[in-house]
Amino acid sequence: VQNVLVTELENLGEKVGDYVFAGGSFTSVDLTGVTEIGAYAFYACTKLSSVTLGDAVTEIGAYAFYGCAMAEITLPDTLTTIGSRAFSNSKLTSITIPANVEEIGAIAFLGTTALTEFAVDSNNQHFSSDGKALYNKDKTTLIAYALGNTATSFEIPNTVETIEQSAFYKATKLRSITIPTSVKTIGQAAFKSCNNEKFTSVVIPESVTTIGKEAFSSDYLTGVIILTEDVSIDSSAFKECPSDLILYCKSAISDLSEDLAAKVYLYAEEKPAEEKKPEEKKRRGLFGLFNRHS
Questions:
Q1: Which of 7, 189, 232, 250 has the fewest CB atoms nearer than 10 Å to its CB?
Q2: Which of 60, 24, 62 is nearest to 42 (CA)?
């Protein structure tokens, strides 16, 4: 089947049911008249490159268009809910969140590596965007970063308090990231697989109190400065980082695994020069380099 036309759903009401077309090989679908798209409805339809939504859709379910091939999709003003992973691993290059969307599920755009920008209708009361990233309305939560944009650096706005789960997952074009002192929580896998050989260091400010599972799991990250003295770090926060990873910390951190604890270097701001060991001088010099670029 090369084309599926869905306009009358007498047997399903006005809903495309869960899993109904999952794994299908068709290339286009017209959903005019449909009000709800169920979970996994078009899951892994890897040839589906054209999707037409009518003016009636209110909900797109979890995983609904996971892995689909469409580069663009126009979301109607009637839409209120986008489920978790709804567009994950799709080929979307841009997306506009309409005015009436109230809920976007967890990691709805995970792995959309071609996505160059987020746009949000200015009348939306729940979400906002600066083009490169998607936020809640007041920009206290960074939800997702547009992985396909060509920027090599990004400064998180100083309004952000929470970096959501997998927000920068696979942001491989980034060489540097600036985390402001407003940030308190860095979610699970927030910077996982930011695998750029130039992205080797990051400074975690004193405001951060929680670092989630695999938050900085990255192939090239070798130097991390943790300025906070009171932080909960998941034992897998730096999983898959190179074996020569060093954590520069102000104080011992009890939550670290035994393996990570062995990589911790404690620095003292005012330690007399004559007491420094040669290796310590080298590492403190590296701290100074980070500090100049933070």
A1: 7
A2: 24
If you ran DSSP here, which 8-state letter would residue 273 be given?
G
The vertex-244 CA angle with 242 and 248, nearest 5°, equals: 110
Mean predicted confidence (pLDDT) in 151-163? 98
E strand segments, 25-93: 28-31, 36-37, 50-53, 59-60, 81-82
Task: Report, as an integer, the average pLDDT of 248-269.
Answer: 74
**Side-chain half-sphere of 159: how many Cα atoms within 13 Å?**
11
Scan for tokens 């599920």, then name that residue: 105
Q: Containing H/E element for 280? A: helix 278-293
Residue corresponding to tokens 């670029």: 293
Strands 81-82 and 50-53, by their bridges, are: unpaired
pLDDT at 290 over 60: no
Rounded-to-integer distance, Cα 67 and Cα 46, Å: 6
